[in-house]
Amino acid sequence: MRRAVWGAPLALVCSLIGCDVLAAETEPSGSIAIVVGHASPIRGVTVDALREVYLRRRRIWRDGVGALPVNLPADSSLRRLFSRRVLGRLPEDLEGHWSRLAFEGVRPPAVLQSPQAVCAYVGVEPAAIGYVPPGAVDAASCRVLFTIDAEGRVR
Question: Residue 142, SS3?
């Protein structure tokens, strides 16, 4: 809502002083927050386990509940960053992987349109896990398991 109210005036002011609002809103900070809902039994996940869940090689959490990873759209700069740092490849490089798994009836992670949608979804689905920019974490609906910083370190 704030963007709708302040977006046009802020864009005008920024254009007058030479900053780019849209670039600031869409560029990831370089850090990625891995999030789950407050009711989620997921407490600790390594980057390796996260990779296995997102590549659908691991489809069940330790408690026996099906793992539900969620992605941002393939053209999202944060998705591309997550894919490089966690999966070791870009979204378009995974097309063959998903084609092979489709024959086994395995579907890729669901795609949600925004970090806000990711927070809302993991907030109501205990088996879900997602990623958002650290500044977009909605503390009312989700919690951060860990953050991957700009250098790729886990915090």
Answer: strand
**Dist. CA 132–CA 87, nearest whole Å:** 16
- Contact indicator for 121, 111 with CB cutoff of 8 Å: no
DSSP symbols for 23-38: HHHHS--S-EEEEEET
Residue 127 confidence (pLDDT) above 90: yes
For residue 133, is pLDDT > 80? yes
Count CB atoms within 10 A of the CB of residue 54.
Answer: 22
Q: What is the DSSP string of 69-96?
A: EEE--TT-HHHHHHIIIIISS-GGGGHH
- Which domains does the chain possess? 1-26 (no CATH), 31-148 (3.40.190.10)
How many CA within 13 A on the CB side of residue 105? 0
User: CA separation (Å) from 48 to 45, 75, 83, 107?
Assistant: 8, 24, 13, 20
Nearest to 106 by CA among 79, 80, 71, 67: 67
